Amino acid sequence: MKRNVLLVDDDPGIQFGFSRYFSNTGFGIKAVSSLAEARQAIMAQRFDAVLLDLMLPDGKGLDWLDELRDKHPGIAIVVITGHGDIPLVVEAMHRGADNFLTKPVSLEDLDLILQKSLEIGILRRNHLTNQRLSKKIQPYFGESTAIKKVLELARLAAENDSAVILQGETGAGKGVLARWINDNSHLSSAPFIEINCSSLKGELLASELFGHARGAFTSATQDKPGLIEVADGGTLFLDEIGDMSLCVQAEFLKVIEEKHFRRLGEVTVRRSEFRLICSTNQDLLKKIQHGSFRQDLYFRINVFPIQLPSLRSRIEDLPGLVCHLLETLGAPHPGVSSEVLELLKAYSWPGNVRELRNVLERAMLLARGGPLAPRHFIGLQSPRLPADTPEDILGLEEMEKIHIKKVLDSFNGDTRKAAELLGISLATLYRKLKKIPKDR
Fold first, then answer.
1. In CATH, what number does 386-440 get?
2. Overall fold of domain 145-307
3. Is the terminal CB of the chain with fewer CB neighbours within 10 Å at N or C?
4. Whether pLDDT at 393 is above 60
5. pTM higher than 0.70 for the full model?
6. How confident is the model over 291-322, as pLDDT tens digits?
């Protein structure tokens, strides 16, 4: 990958000489003459190194160092200075510069110093990556009454080894809660083995769960332990168990009941003791009625059910979730404006917390290190009808308001019955009612 260098110097001779040198050595270079141009350039493009003159037309390069190092901790910074600026160089090194060059600049010295600075930048990035990996970020679920009830149940689940099933919509945080239960139990230091049952079908899922012996099937070139075996003494988390095929369900039920299993293509009986956590976004009782889920397996896994609420039903948790997610994403501005919050609150979030995280990450990329604004949230703004739209054509938002008013009128204002008919929570209905003018 080509390494890019930002040159910040208002000397035309240095710009010409450095640009020619870097072009011949395989670097990409962009030359700017002021701090303002430098800030714009680094927001628009990724750079591996910055060559920064300390004396510029609109200020001292020293004044930009703290901001540059804070927002781009892994970037290599080399300051360029005159002979009389040594005290400034010392301060620059204290404030994050990796090295310095004195004018007139020797291209041989430039090559050596830049290579060393890039090596320091790589080491710094590796160190920061290791720090992020070693630092365990505690999940944030929210402060609403609904989520507090969920956490109370989760704490009870963590205190014993009974099978737990987490139910809720896609993206509601079932996987995060499963990990939280494990981390707060006496099994926190034991293996936590996770598998998504919707990503593998039939024999492939069975092979992952039970393992296989060499020659059990065409691609089985060696013995392989299954995840049930690996989870011995720890926790096995089956994500989206509702997608498990009936044949695998029957085999897995036997494992739960007897704690014994065989690898595919093997006669040896093996034993595994594990704590079971399952999750699903489906109605398993309906699947039982349709014959696609075993009732006996349902009874075995439904010992301690926990229902996770959707994000739209606990919209009061959204501000805290936004701040937490921005922090985990490494946002330079972890807070958001009231305009952005109102925009986020007005959205229905069909993908729940997972969608919120993706939307925030995309907004951060569009903001290029600046504060998040409504324009960075593409697709969340309410669409406006074209000016030449006929008067009898309404937008979806307006039609929704009319329909809600009609349902409420039919139940004489009974919001609970209206919410049940509409298929939404009371909290969601009240939030939508706030947007409907009182005279409607």
1. 1.10.10.60
2. Rossmann fold (3.40.50)
3. N
4. no
5. no
6. 999 999 999 999 999 999 999 999 999 999 99
